[in-house]
Specification:
alpha+beta; Alpha-Beta Plaits; Ubiquitin-like (UB roll); 11 helices; 19 strands; globular
Length: 439
C-alpha cells in the first residue's frame, strides 16, 4: 500500500497552533478529541479551558477552537520541555508523535535563540512560555495519531502566507514576519509570501508545526482529490480574507507543475463569517452523531477478544467497546461485539473486526447522541499541611445542575500513594471540595 497524502493549505491565511487543532477537530468530526490533552495540562494551569465553535465562511464550514488560560503562568524552556514529556507520557503518545512534538518545541527554542542572538540557555519565551504552546504542539500530534495520519504519510503544503505590516508583542512592535517566524522559515527552507492580510498570519508555533510535518511544498493543488477535509478557522478577523487553514487527506492525480514562489495565489474570496457555539449550552443538551458497528461471533476465544479490545483502544478508533454474552443460532453461546466510533473510523473498525474475529460481515448504523455537558476542574487538597492537585470531571444536566463528579483516577492514586490514605478515604473529600467550588 502506498503512502497516504495529506495536503495542508496555508496559502490563504497562514497557520497557527490553534488553526491546526481546529482543522484536525473538523477532520475527525469530534469536538471532544482535544479534551484529554487539555485535561493533562490543568495541573500546570488550572484556569485552562477550551471550547469548540462551529464556524462558516460562505460555502466553507469548519471549526474554531477557543482557548482561555492564565497569561501570568509563564514557563521557561526547561519547564516547557518537562511538561511536554509528562503530557506525552500521560497521553501514551507513540514514539513518533513524541519525537515530532519535541522537535517542534526545539525548533521554537532555536528560533528564539537565533532571532534575539541569545544562547539557548538564556532565551526568554514571552508569549510562547504558556501551556497553550504544549496544547498546540502535543494536541496536533495526538489528533494526527488519532486520525491515523502519522507514519506512512506524506505531508505536502502550499506556500505559506505570512502576512505583512507590524504587530505589538511583549518584545515591542515588530515587523511581520516576526524574527522567530523568519528564523524558522529560513532554517527550514519553507517557501512563503506576504499574502493579502495586513497583519501576522503565520505564528511561530504554526511555522514550527509545518517545519516538522511537511516534506514538500506546492503552489497549486488543482490535481489533488480529497477524500476527507478538515477546516480550521483562526480567531483573528482578517477583513476580506477568510482566516482558515485546510487539512485534506487524498491524493494527487497528476504531479503538480513547479511554479515560481512569488506567483503563489491565495484564495481571498470575500465572505461573512458566522459563528455558532457548539460547547456547553445550559438551555439544551449537547448532541453529536456516531456510528455503531457490531457483529456476532461464536467461535472466538477470550485471548482474541481481549486483544481486539486493546487494539481498538490503542489505535484510538473506538469511543467505546462493548462485548455482550448472548445465545445465537443453534442455541450456541456467542458474543455480540458492539463498537461506538466516529463515522470517519467506520472502515478501519470494520476491517479490524473482520480480520481479528474472522467475521463474515458486520452491521452498522448512524446514531444521534444526547450528552451531558462536561468540564474539567482542578481541586487543591490540603492534607497534613501539604497541598495536592487533583483533576475532577464534572457533568451537568440541561439545566446546568451537576449530575456527576468524578475525580481523575490517576491523580487519586498518585495522592493516595503520597499520603498513605486509601482511595475510599480520598474520593469523598475530593468530591466535597469539587462541589464546594462549583456550586
Amino acid at each position: 500500500m502506498g503512502k497516504k497524502e495529506v495536503l495542508i493549505d496555508v496559502s490563504t491565511a497562514g497557520a497557527s497552533g490553534d488553526m491546526f487543532l481546529s482543522a484536525l477537530l473538523s477532520l475527525l468530526n469530534d469536538d471532544d478529541a482535544i479534551l484529554p490533552v487539555a485535561a493533562s495540562l490543568l495541573i500546570y494551569d488550572p484556569s485552562l479551558r477550551v471550547k469548540v465553535h462551529e464556524e462558516s465562511s460562505g460555502e466553507v464550514h469548519g471549526k474554531r477552537l477557543e482557548v482561555k488560560q492564565d497569561s501570568e503562568v509563564k514557563l521557561d524552556s526547561d519547564a516547557l520541555s518537562e511538561v511536554l514529556t509528562s503530557v506525552a507520557e500521560e497521553l501514551e503518545l507513540s514514539k513518533d508523535a513524541t519525537s515530532l512534538s519535541r522537535k517542534a518545541l526545539n525548533i521554537l527554542f532555536k528560533a528564539e535563540s537565533e532571532a534575539h542572538k541569545t544562547p539557548l540557555s538564556d532565551i526568554h519565551l514571552h508569549e510562547l512560555g504558556t501551556v497553550d504552546t504544549i496544547l498546540d504542539i502535543v494536541g496536533t500530534m495526538y489528533m494526527l495519531e488519532k486520525a491515523n495520519l502519522l507514519g506512512n504519510v506524506d505531508f505536502i503544503a502550499t506556500h505559506v502566507a505570512v502576512g505583512s505590516g507590524k504587530i505589538k508583542t511583549e518584545h515591542g512592535e515588530l515587523d511581520v514576519p516576526v524574527p522567530a517566524v523568519k528564523a524558522i522559515l529560513d532554517m527550514n527552507n519553507i517557501p512563503s509570501f506576504s499574502g493579502k492580510s495586513k497583519t501576522e498570519t503565520l505564528t511561530p508555533t504554526g511555522a514550527a508545526l509545518l517545519a516538522v510535518l511537511v516534506g514538500s511544498y506546492v503552489e497549486s493543488y488543482e490535481s489533488f482529490e480529497s477524500e476527507i477535509i478538515g477546516i480550521g478557522f483562526g480567531s483573528k478577523d482578517l477583513k476580506d480574507v477568510t482566516n482558515a487553514l485546510s487539512i485534506m487527506v487524498g491524493e494527487f492525480t497528476a504531479k503538480p507543475a513547479p511554479k515560481k514562489k512569488e506567483e503563489a495565489k491565495p484564495n481571498t474570496k470575500k465572505s461573512e463569517v458566522k459563528s455558532k457555539e457548539m460547547t456547553i449550552d445550559m438551555d439544551q443538551w449537547e448532541t453529536d452523531e456516531v456510528v455503531v458497528i457490531e457483529t456476532n461471533v461464536d467461535d472466538v476465544d477470550g485471548e482474541i477478544m481481549g486483544h481486539l479490545f486493546d487494539t481498538l483502544a490503542e489505535d484510538n478508533l473506538a469511543i467505546d467497546v462493548i462485548m455482550i454474552p448472548a445465545f445465537g443460532k443453534k442455541n450456541r453461546p456467542c458474543t455480540l461485539v458492539k463498537v461506538l466510533a466516529n463515522e470517519s473510523n467506520l472502515n478501519a473498525v470494520a476491517d479490524l473486526l473482520i480480520k481479528h474475529l474472522g467475521a463474515l460481515g458486520i452491521r452498522y448504523q448512524n446514531w444521534n447522541r444526547i450528552k451531558a455537558s462536561r468540564e474539567m476542574i482542578v481541586c487543591k487538597m490540603d492534607i497534613d499541611n501539604k497541598e495536592y492537585m487533583v483533576r475532577v470531571k464534572l457533568s451537568r444536566s440541561s439545566d446546568g445542575s451537576i449530575v456527576n463528579i468524578k475525580p481523575e483516577a490517576d491523580d487519586v492514586i498518585r495522592v493516595a500513594k503520597m499520603t498513605g490514605m486509601t482511595i475510599r478515604e480520598l474520593k469523598p473529600r475530593i468530591i466535597l471540595q469539587a462541589r464546594a467550588i462549583t456550586e
